[in-house]
User: What shape does this take?
Amino acid sequence: MPRIFDNIESRLGDGLREALASAARGDFCVGYFNLRGWRLLDSSVDHWSGSDENCCRLLVGMHRTPEESIRLLHSATPTDELVDQATARTLHKQIAEDFRRQLASGVPSNEDELGLRRLAGQLRSRRVRTKLYLRHPLHAKLYLCFRSDPTSPSIGFLGSSNLTLPGLLRQGELNIDVLDHDACVKLAKWFDDRWSDRFCIDISNELADIIDQSWAAEQQLSPYLLYLKIAYHLCREAREGVALFDLPAAFRGLLFEYQAKAVQLAAQHLNRRGGVILGDVVGLGKTMMASALARMLEDDLGFETLILCPPKLQRMWDDYRQRFGLRATIVPISQVQQQLPELRRHRLVIIDESHNLRNRQGNRYLAIREYLAQNESKVIMLSATPYNKSYGDLASQLRLFVEPDQPLPCQPEKYVEEIGETEFIRRHQCRPNTIDGFEKSVHADDWRQLMQLYLVRRTRGFIRQHYAQRDGENGREYLTLATGLATIFRTVSRKSSSSNAARTTPRISMPLSIRPRWFRRSAPCTCRDTASRIILSIRFRRASPPRSSVQSTACRGPVSA
Assistant: This one.
């Protein structure tokens, strides 16, 4: 009578290890192979030589999920299960990528790391040989062990268990052992026929390479490479924004590189979460960036824009609306209570100087929030000082378009680690991954983590470090537009209000040609978009790097970025 291995009373993993202890060769065929699951059996084959008569052959079939199998079964279009060479190559790449993704999921452990390293060594030494069977989907689960025993030269295990830790030890399965010699011979022939099929591809070295390129590699990575890996993942949204969103044609050549990248990142935030805060410091061109972002949504999605701004900025916004063809309505923020209830739907709302909306009980705040909620509008906020007195300032601005109990993709880790999640919920009666939950934290790191999802903010020092170029002849730093127009950083000394010590302030010049018409004058200006609210000197040249041999034009006057 055959023995039953159901992983309840008898575990298949234990039966396999017992059979392999006296075996000289093994042939396994499974529908799914988990690389980490091999550590259960690796010690049983580690002493094998790797010759044809002293190795383990592992045949992995194509695995389909039950949903995919049902979909194909009931498909209106008949599917041909046979494959050609091109299809086999495609399937080979897909399955190899699936093995790579295996190692990227789950939490690594020391046992997994050591087991994967042993598997990589056994694959390279040919003690374990792995092939993909691609002729058609194969879900068989067969384990054959061959030994030098004249009375019972082979033993087989047949059933439902794949080569995974749950399949061999934990998950409810149904397997039996096969001791009949004739049955084992027939099963061995069945295996050999598929192992020698021309659509059976050896991936032993490929699997070893996948392991060696993962966290389980024996060669230790340098801290710098780890830093780059972390940075790569942290900037995922910025990379996706640059790849997915193109600047409107009306703005090409008018934005510096740092402004264009900010627009694309903001578009990604806006697309994912319905709102973004453009928080660059004064003078870096938030108005231009918001206009470009609005025009992008108007062109791509047919949106119309509502601009809420302080009365003193109405004239500036009207100039931008006319110049860049924005389908926008401008409402002074002092009139929102009177005008918003009767205003038609605008799918995009720009709120300038959003830091003024700190009082959640104020009539203006409530009128704006109600309009945004009723019209499901996306929101672009502009503020050089989104944080004023407390973290509640940030929460108030976010609450305009984020519901207090809306689940967020992060939580205040520092505070939760400090008191524990259970105590957090008991004490505050809210989930930690909500705006309500973040408001309970006073840790700066928690708020930085949250604002990474909604805020685009750079300083002049950041722009100088990452975007400015330096003239080799005179050492001056400059930025260049796509048109070749160069603008120069100018550093001037100012007296500190608290002491007589002089300090230097870097200023970014802006070409006169892209300033609003009403702003082209030679007088001090109090507009938010001027650098440090002072008159800036402008020098620009129509050349890529500024050189002394190229004629220049100098002009003075206030600048809007």
